[in-house]
């Protein structure tokens, strides 16, 4: 039995159903409705913080700041999903791994910066304490 007879006998050509177009389930297919959904969500997530700040909805500025940070984080996720087309399956998970590494570096940098800034007075001029 040669290779051609084997192919005919088993009913496949060795590709197991792949048609050779390079499509798999890990890619997000771009559509106009996806872009419109992302745009609408982005506009909503931009107007809500604008209204919170300009309308002075909350008396405490710390409450407004926390809501602004939360809505900013949600908007980052919306942009990553709808415009950058990132998910856990894209590029075999390497995109998500690179994102997590970047987030770790950002957290380390920000926490170190805040730590230095909050302790700057006592570290720079120890004799000037009141």
Automatic annotation (TrEMBL):
GO terms for biological process: aerobic electron transport chain; electron transport coupled proton transport. The chain crosses the membrane at residues 32-53, 65-84, 96-120. Pfam families: COX4_pro. It comes from the Bacteria. One of its GO terms (cellular component) is plasma membrane. It is found in: Cell membrane. It is a multi-pass membrane protein. Keywords: Cell membrane, Electron transport, Membrane, Oxidoreductase, Transmembrane, Transmembrane helix, Transport. InterPro entries: Cyt_c_oxidase_su4_prok, Cyt_o_ubiqinol_oxidase_su4, Cytochrome_c_oxidase_bac_sub4. GO terms for molecular function: cytochrome bo3 ubiquinol oxidase activity; proton transmembrane transporter activity. Belongs to the cytochrome c oxidase bacterial subunit 4 family. Heterooctamer of two A chains, two B chains, two C chains and two D chains. Cytochrome bo(3) ubiquinol terminal oxidase is the component of the aerobic respiratory chain of E.coli that predominates when cells are grown at high aeration. Has proton pump activity across the membrane in addition to electron transfer, pumping 2 protons/electron. This is Cytochrome bo(3) ubiquinol oxidase subunit 4.
